[in-house]
Amino acid sequence: MGRGTKNLLSQAGFTLRLLFESLYYTKDIIVRRREIVKQMYLAGVKTLLVCSMVGLFTGMILALQSGIEMREFGQQALIGGLVVASMLREMGPFMSGLILAASVGSAMAAEVGAMKVYDEIDALELMLINPVRFLVMPRVVALALVMPIISIYIDVLACLGGAIVAKQVLQVSYNVYMKYLLQAVHFKSMYVGLLKAFVFGLIVSSISCAYGLRADGGVLGVGHATRTSVVASFLMVLIIGYYITSIFYG
């Protein structure tokens, strides 16, 4: 077994242990509520502009590309249903996962990594303060709670963007668009999408904090940990998203 494989397995095991330990310390949510709210604000409110632009233009692109093809068969009126089904099941959770991994996850890895290389983590342990309970758990809980909200927000804006394209480009009225959109909204699609977003929140926060806690080598080590955490988060969002979809729709 090569060194790279050993490092990968070691990092995966450490990340899983960190996730389960964080879930164990959720019993202290009330005690750490201020930090959780702070992290939710940083993860949610601070990313609203980016999420707004991504959601709006994702819906517009989806409606434009699909609508043009559907117009060849005279079925462009169904575009509302296609947009909402795609966003609820896949694109909403997927886009929110990638956005928060790139913005919030990288910030988490950098922050925790800086604390690691400057011996602040060791200082916490010397004061008998558990770093997972103090630092990691609030971030894991915050991102797991915020991710479904961001996913819904992106879904709504994507449907709005799709409506604009449907009206202006495909000549589909808002009433017809909304009619087929509402027909395509199913409870299963909603809870599968929210489940994905929740799981993505757990994954991204755990991976980011795990790489931060294992950072070494000074500033360069923090940069490497941050970059690697984003790549790992992207891959896991794709992989876990596939398996959740296959479980419910396979």
Notes on the protein architecture:
This protein has one domain (33-245). It is 84% helix and 0% strand. It has nine helices and no strands.
Beta strands, count: 0
**Structural class from helices and strands?**
mainly alpha
Quaternary class: single chain
Structurally, the number of domains stands at: 1
Distance between the termini: 34 Å
Radius of gyration: 20 Å
* Low-pLDDT residue spans: none
**What overall geometry do the principal axes of the alpha carbons give?**
elongated
Strand content: under 5%
Rounded average pLDDT: 92
Tell me roughly what share of residues is in helical segments: over 70%
Main sheet summary: none
What is the fold's blueprint, element by element?
Elements (H helix, E strand, L loop, with lengths): L2 H22 L8 H12 L3 H24 L7 H39 L2 H7 L4 H38 L5 H10 L3 H27 L4 H32 L1
Helix pairs in contact: 1-6, 1-8, 2-6, 3-4, 3-6, 4-6, 4-7, 4-8, 4-9, 6-7, 6-8, 8-9
